Amino acid sequence: MPMMNRRRLLGTAMAAGAMATAMRAVGGGAAGPIFLTPGPVRFDLTGRGMTEGMMGFTPEGPPPVIRLRQGVPAEILVENRLEEITTVHWHGMRLPVDQDGVPWLTQMPIGAGETYRYRFTPPDAGTYWYHPHCNTLEQIARGLAGLIVVEEAEPQAFDADLALQIRDFRLGGDGQFIELYKPRNMARGGTLGTVSTVNWRVAPVLAAPAGGLVRLRLAVTDVTRVYELSLAGAEAALIALDGQPLPAPEVLPVPLVLAPGQRADLALLMPAEGQEVALSFARTSGKSEVLATVRATGAPLGRSLDGLAPLPPNPTPLPDLARAERLDFTFGWSPDGTAPDTGGFCGDVPYRFWSINRVPYAGDAPPDPARPGRPLATLTRGRSYVLRMLNETQNDHPIHLHGLAMHLLGPEGRPTGRVQDTVLLRSHESAEVAVLADNPGDWVFHCHVIEHQKSGLAGFIRVA
Q1: Residues 325, 385: contact at Cβ < 8 Å?
Q2: What are 108's strand-pairing partners?
Q3: Is the CB of residue 315 less than 8 Å from the CB of residue 123?
Q4: d(CA 17, CA 43)
Q5: According to DSSP H, which parts of 70-141 are helical?
Q6: DSSP label at 298?
Q7: Parallel, antiparallel, or unpaired: how do β-strands 74-79 and 34-36 relate?
Q8: Exposure class string for 265-301: b at 16+ Cβ within 10 A, else e
Q9: The pTM is what?
Q10: Of the candidates 402, 375, 399, the residue with the CA atom closest to the CA atom of residue 94
Q11: Is the peptide bond before 255 cis (omega within 30 degrees of 0)?
Q12: What tens digit of pLDDT does each residue of 88-120 get?
């Protein structure tokens, strides 16, 4: 069956179903700007009534999946309908620094009632996400997070493309928000959510063509939880991490571990019509819980994983390891646990439990000429570096670097072929990544457990 007919069949099947499906998409190569309107919303997350006090990027609630194309200019207008300042950061996308969305460091924050215009051309295809970088703990926890799909310059041979945003909300038994964090948890692993969702739904059922080859995009946008994921009912291969293609498809790890900020693309071979594929995760108690189900629909397409080709590589050149300078970063406790006064800008918290190289991040605030911010390191543009990262604590730290690609190195310092923007350091783990300093600017370097970030585990690296 020709590819166009397969896609038409999928569209018919999904439109006919009364099932919860993927989030609404915007963009897709259409002319004109994309509009986002961060503001207060209410939405029925649990099926038991409206949750008040949420935040969304559209009045309808669930943030849309933004679909762009590699190498094609994009324009996104953000109208701030919140009663506080905000920004939008395009997580994992290697963009010019003035488009990175970090308040005061790369742009002025977007005031209440203001509109900000982002313009950029995505250099890399893959799965990314967008979220505020101001008052991040509250704004993301209340819902401000959405997915970005940057499609390859040449269409790929999949019969369906499903984007799944995986995240918790902290709700009480009445479906309303409870305290978003607890200080004692902030000083440890972070405060877990109580209701796990996919695309703002509890255990949604999606549809895909029977016997078809599906690109399943998984993105963890949670503020805390490290997910241990498993897939039952179908064969699948891992084809990309953090938007960056693997050199060759790999057997799906069991479990597939994804931390806040990380993404994984799977090639999923759907079973026969009427059968289901379950995506589950393990709670801290060890109990398995279904996050989402994909149901096979329609006549079988007869696809196979045999001979599956790797995705086209992105333009992320390997750093020159022979000439790379070594830099050490230790992620650990704050020296004294006190918090500097940043005036409460961008949702600061009154604690500093964490630090990088014993320096806790002061917080997002307007520049102070008397106390200028200092980079954790200054890299020379065009040179190569190896970042040696050590987690000296018993807690997990997914470390995210803006603006630059991190090439993961193996135990002997050799490239593994994996390129990521968020590297998970588990308890007392270390990792080495190679970085080519090819994108000038000040790039935030932080833990994506947001409680850790807000209480000191952040800083920035300068490329000059």
Answers
A1: yes
A2: none
A3: yes
A4: 21
A5: 136-141
A6: S
A7: parallel
A8: bbbbbbbeeeebbbbbbeeeeeeeebbbbbbbbbeeb
A9: 0.93
A10: 402
A11: yes
A12: 999 999 999 999 999 999 999 999 999 999 999
